[in-house]
Amino acid sequence: MKKLKVFCLIAVAIGLTASGDLFAQSSPLTGKNVIKYNLTATAIGHYAIQYERVINPKQSFAIGFGISPNVSLPFKQTLMDAFGDNADAKSAIESTKFTKFTITPEYRFYLGKKEAPGGFYIAPFARYTNMKLTQAYKFTDSDDSKHTANVTGKFNGVGAGVVFGAQWLLGKKENIVLDFWFAGPFAGVMKATFEGVDDQFIKDPATLENDIEGFDLPLWTVDATVTNVNGKGKVDANLKGPFYGFRTLGLSIGYRF
After folding, report:
1. Number of domains in the chain
2. Helices and strands (H and E) in the chain: how many
3. Is there a domain that residue 6 lies in?
4. What is the pLDDT of residues 53-100, one digit of tens each?
């Protein structure tokens, strides 16, 4: 009888040990969380971090936050090459400053032999963009007088796409993370509002309205209103249309915990 009790106790102890190991394998462990910093975005004045959480052995959810504080237009030189022969356009491009904030959630599917968060992945993602802009908008009135309207603008856009990349876990504990993505097309819709105030009276508001609305923006609608209030010119414009982009050749470094 005693031998039977001892055998039962041993069996229970072995069972608890085994179940403890199984629980440890299936319970949340360190290593399912990754925090990363985008190295390549820093080159264009955009500072971005991403948090990734492993959901199961082959999938994870990530969300990124980015900000570009008071920076010049991206691809400024390209715009100057295209419009720099127009003095007013050149002035507008050079004076433009913007602050951009982005939120980018994504869901990753890891396709390699390794478990998440390592290996090749495909990730559908969404992106919300909010941007505030300031600009000195120069124009010539019908009497050849020179005007400058101090313009502020707001953009809000929502889009979606898919990104392809690979992530490596480095070090003995595999807690140093390198995340490289090489292709990520996306598209969406954006709305923008602009408001400008000119210290001078605008003699020909209708012509300026037509000039603004006649600016060639494929697939965009532009609605402008130019008025005079208390002897000062006022310019308002609403824009709506598609936007698209490409997340390509990006590199982030992070820590897994």
Report:
1. 1
2. 4, 11
3. no
4. 999 999 999 999 999 999 887 667 777 777 767 777 788 788 899 999
